[in-house]
Amino acid sequence: MDCDKRIEYIKSEVKRTLQHAECGHDYSHALRVMRNAELIAQSEGGDVVTIQAAALLHDVSDEKFSNGNTVIGLKLTENILKKAKFKSAEIAKIIDIIKNISYKGGFNVNGVPSIECAIVQDADRLDAIGAIGVARAFHYGGYKNRELYNPEIEPQDFENAEEYRNSNGPTINHFYEKLLKLKYLMNTPTAKVLAEPRHKFLEQFLDEFMKEWRNE
Ligand code: ADP
Ligand code: NI
C-alpha cells in the first residue's frame, strides 16, 4: 500500500472502532489531532506517516475507557497497523508513541521517546484547550455526571495518576487541575505558539463563567 492508502485504511478502522466512543475522544478528535500534528510537523520535522498513524490511533487503546486495561487496546492498534502493511519496526515506533502521549494527571514521567511522539502529544493537548477544549471538558463532565462548578470544592493537587483519574470534582476544577497547565507543557516551540490563543480563550471563558455565576 502507498502512504495515502495506509492512512486511509487506518482512518476507516478508527472511525469504526470509535463509533460509540465518548464524543470528546471520538473519530473527530482523532482527525483534529492528526491535523494539528501535521501542522506542527511542517515546522518541527518528524516522519509524517508515523505521526499521522499515531495521531489517528492514539485513543483507540485509552485505558480510561477499558477500566485501566491497555493491553486489549494496544493489541487492536497493532492489528490495524499490521493490516495496513506497516513493517514491524514501524509498528513498534508507533506503539511506543501511543504508550507515551497520555497526560495521566501529569504523572506520565517517562518523557517523550521521539520527535514524532512530542508532536502528537502536543497536538492532542492543543485539542484539550481553546473552544473545543471547553466543549470536550463539559461533555466529559456530563458523561461522568459531574457538577459544572461548586465553589465549595477546591481544585486538587493529585498525588498520583489513579487519584487524578478517579477524581469526581466539578468540571470547572479540571481547568485548574489540567487544562490551564497545558500551555506550559508543550514540547515544541510551534505548539507553544499555537497554544497561546487557545489558553487565552480558556481564561476568558472562566472569567465570564464566574461573572455570570456571581450575577455580576
Ligand atoms: P489523556 O487521555 O491524555 O491522559 P485525560 O484523560 O486527562 O488525558 O483527558 C483527556 C480529555 O478528556 C481532557 O482534555 C478533557 O477534555 C477530558 N477530561 C478528562 N478528565 C476530565 C475531567 N475530570 N473533567 C472534565 N474533562 C475531563
Ligand atoms: Ni486524545
Could you name the CATH class? Mainly Alpha
Which structural class is indicated by helix and strand composition?
Answer: mainly alpha
Q: Cα-atom Rg, whole angstroms?
A: 17 Å
Outline type:
globular
CATH architecture: Orthogonal Bundle
How confident is the prediction overall: mean pLDDT?
92
CATH topology: Hypothetical protein af1432
- Major beta-sheet overview: none
> Could you list the spans in which at least 5 consecutive residues all have pLDDT below 50?
none
The tally of domains stands at 1
β content, as a range?
under 5%
Please give the count of helices: 11
* Ligands, deduplicated: adenosine-5'-diphosphate, nickel (II) ion
The SSE order reads HHHHHHHHHHH
Distance between the termini: 60 Å
Description:
The chain has a single domain, classed as Hypothetical protein af1432 (Orthogonal Bundle), CATH 1.10.3210. 64% of the residues lie in helices and 0% in strands. The longest helix is centred in the last third of the chain and has 25 residues. Nickel (II) ion binds next to helix 2.
